[in-house]
Sequence to fold (223 residues):
Amino acid sequence: QKEVEQDPGPLSVPEGAIVSLNCTYSNSAFQYFMWYRQYSRKGPELLMYTYSSGNKEDGRFTAQVDKSSKYISLFIRDSQPSDSATYLCAIWQGGSEKLVFGKGTKLTVNP
Amino acid sequence: GAGVSQSPRYKVAKRGQDVALRCDPISGHVSLFWYQQALGQGPEFLTYFQNEAQLDKSGLPSDRFFAERPEGSVSTLKIQRTQQEDSAVYLCASSLDNSPLHFGNGTRLTVT
Fold:
């Protein structure tokens, strides 16, 4: 079992839809939870970062963490064509430990 | 510079050739990581430096892979005797201590 599981999609939605992206993880020691966005032929770009259970909102984006279920989500409201990218969840123990990524979900928002 | 810079952006190597990939981290960032991203996959950890010290190289797939950061800033990832399975995007990331990683745009290596 991989440390982080993420449905690779692809996911295709119409403009304006609400998008839900999810990951599960297996290691209870993980403390920090991130979502990265990766456009084609670019490096991953940090989108959201949280270390506690609950919700964190930033504009149209909401990150949700449920440590008891080892489940993290990213919601995108009023999705735009410019949101079309691959979304990677990433989990970190902290300190010098490596960041562990999911496979990524490829999202296409159709105008 | 403003971000993590990697060069070259693209590299084509014949099987058996040696390659060297360069990473310029964000100025002042202590930590530097190398990741390998195969097509359709998430990045996989290769190795980690804190300043010039290589603290974790557990992700390097074989002894053909070698990384260095001699002065605690620029880093080089070297792959000797490249094989087709080495074809991937190699990502470098840097961070201040105990903070999220900032990635470069990667070097896309194709081994023919």
Summary: Chain B touches chain A at residues 4, 31, 33, 40-45, 48, 50, 55-56, 59, 91, 93, 98, 100-106, 108 (CB under 8 Å). Residues 28 and 96 of chain B are 7 Å apart (CA to CA).
